[in-house]
Amino acid sequence: MRTRDALDAATVESLLAAAVAAPSIHNTQPWRFGLDVHHQVLEVRSAPQRTLPLTDPLHRAQYLSVGAAVFNLRLAALHLGRRPEVRLLPDPYEPGLLATVRLTGSVDAEDQPADPGLYEAIARRHTSRMPFTGRPVPEPIVAEMTAAAHAAGARLHVPDIAGTRRLLRPTAAAEARNHAHRDRTAETLTWITAPGRDSSYGIPVTALGPPDAAGRMPMRDFTGPLRAVRRPALWFERHVQLGLLWTAHDRREDWLRAGQALQYVLLTATAHGLRTSLLHQAMEWPDLRAATALPRHKRCHPHVLIRFGYGPDGAVTPRAPGLSAAAGAGPRITTGRVSP
Ligand SMILES: Cc1cc2nc3c(=O)[nH]c(=O)nc-3n(C[C@H](O)[C@H](O)[C@H](O)COP(=O)(O)O)c2cc1C
C-alpha cells in the first residue's frame, strides 16, 4: 500500500474498532480520536469527562488505558498493511493530545510486532474474573510475555510463590481501604451497569466475578454495598500466577509505554489460549503502590498486576463504537498540521 493511499472510511473504522477494544479502567474508555486526513495521522486524546477523580487522581490509569488503545492501533495498522509511526505526547502545548499515529508506507519484514496472532487476539481478549484452573503456564509462554513488556518499554516481573504473596498483601490492604471509603465505592459503582440497562460504557454486572471462598485472592469488589448483585463465593486457584508490570521512570510517557506493554502482554497471553485479569487496587494508594515495588530495583514504578492462567473466558463488555468515540458522531477531521 502506498504512503499516499487515502484513509478511507472502512480503514478508519477498522483501526478505531481495534483501538476501542482495549481494556480500560472500569471500562471508562477514556479516549477520543481525531483524524488528520491530509497527513494520514490519527490523533489520540484523553477524554476528560471519563476520568475517576478519586481512584485515579493523577490519571495514570487513564494513560495506561490509552496506551493499550494505541498498541491496538499499531497492530491494526500493520494488519492493514500500513506502517504506524507513533509519537507519544507530540505537542507540549496540547497536553491532552496523548499520541499521534501516522500511517506511513508499506510494512516491511522488520516491523514489530509482526505476529499476526496478536491482531486476532484483540477481539478474543476479555477480562476473566472467574477462578482459573491453577494449571501452570509453560515457561516459554511466560518468557514471551516478559519479552513483550520489554519490547514495549516496560518490565514484567513474574514472582515465585513467596513473591506472589508479597504482592497480594498490598492489594488486599487496598481492597479493604476501598471498601471502607464511601466516596470511592460510590465512584466505582457509577461505572457498574445494572442488568437490563443499556450503556456503552462501564462494566455490566454480568462481567463481574465472585469473591474467593478461601479469602486469598483479593479480586476487586465493584459492588460495594449492593450485596444483592454480588456472586456467591467460589474457590480460586491456590497458586495464582501473576506478573507485576513496572517501568524505571514514572512520567506521563512511561505510563503510555506501560499501557502499550500491558496490551502487548495481554494479547500475547490471549494468543496462547490464556485468560487474564488485572488487579490495580494497590496502585490507587501511594503507600501501597510503593509497597509493591521490587526491593532489588532502585527505580521500580509499579503499574498493575496481571493475573494469568487457564480458565473460563471473560464476558464481553460493551464499547462505544470507534467512530463515535471521536468528538461528536464521527472522528474529528482536521486537515491542518499536527504540531511537532
Ligand atoms: C489500568 C487498568 C486497571 C484495571 N484494574 C482492574 C481491577 O483492578 N480489577 C478488575 O477486575 N479489572 C480491572 N481492569 C479491567 C477493566 O475493568 C476492563 O478492561 C474493562 O472493564 C473492559 O473489559 P475487557 O477487559 O473485558 O474488555 C483494569 C483495566 C485497566 C486498563
TrEMBL record:
Region described as Disordered: 321-340
Domain of life: Bacteria
Composition bias type Low complexity, residue spans: 321-331
InterPro entries cross-referenced by the UniProt entry: Nitroreductase-like, Nitroreductase/BluB
Gene3D superfamilies membership: NADH Oxidase
NCBIfam families: Rv3131_FMN_oxido
Protein's recorded name: Nitroreductase family protein
Species whose genome carries this gene: Streptomyces prasinosporus
